[in-house]
Amino acid sequence: MNAKAAVSNRDARSRFVESFAAVLTETGFPRMPARVFAALLASDSGTMTSAGLAELLHISPAAVSGAVRYLMQMSLVSREHEPGSRRDSYRVHSDVWCEAMARRDRVLSRCERSLREGIGLLGRNTGAGARMAETLAFFEFIQAELPALLEKWRTRKARLSLAQPASHQTAHSARRKRA
């Protein structure tokens, strides 16, 4: 790739990062984690170091650290230690949304328990209790339907050939075996 094409690619990637981060922010994502997530998503390898993220996004290492901590809590990125290096890198995996949704069942279960408690305390026949009962019914529905929906997605993904390129899969599986 020539220098002009590389600059054009970098500019296009930066525009995407800021645009997608704005969309995520509008949906309730904190701004800095949204930018870091979008940057990782837009990188060819799906992996960047803290220094690389700070440089790309023109933010401080502390801002990267806070954003990555949030993203790790949300199970949207993972930390990887490169052998022989003192630096960690952060990775967004190809099936990040599917895996994040699959892990939500624990959160839904906790919400359901809390809602049942609230309904018991306030009474199902009160306005608050009725709203909580509807929320509980929705969460129960989602939790019951989610496994089948995720399986449908995996089937569709395989049919559409949306898997990672073989070179990425090989490098990623080699890192996982070493860990």
Summarize this structure briefly.
This protein is mostly helical and 179 residues long. The protein has helices at 3-26, 31-42, 50-57, 61-73, 96-122, 127-160, 166-178, and strands at 47-49, 78-81, 88-91. Helix 1 crosses helix 2 and helix 2 packs across helix 4.
Blueprint of the fold:
Elements: H1 3-26, H2 31-42, E1 47-49, H3 50-57, H4 61-73, E2 78-81, E3 88-91, H5 96-122, H6 127-160, H7 166-178
Antiparallel strand pairs: 1-3, 2-3
Helix pairs in contact: 1-2, 2-4, 3-4, 5-6
Features:
single chain; 179 residues; mainly alpha; Arc Repressor Mutant, subunit A; three-stranded antiparallel sheet; 7 helices; 6% strand; elongated; disordered C terminus
Task: Write up this protein.
Helix 1 (3-26) crosses helix 2 (31-42) and helix 2 (31-42) packs across helix 4. It contains seven helices and three strands. Residues 166-179 have low confidence and may be disordered. It folds into two domains: 3-91, Arc Repressor Mutant, subunit A; 96-163. The protein has a three-stranded antiparallel beta sheet. The protein has helices spanning 3-26, 31-42, 50-57, 61-73, 96-122, 127-160, 166-178, and strands at 47-49, 78-81, 88-91. It has 179 residues and is mostly helical. A hairpin with a 6-residue loop joins strand 2 (78-81) and strand 3.
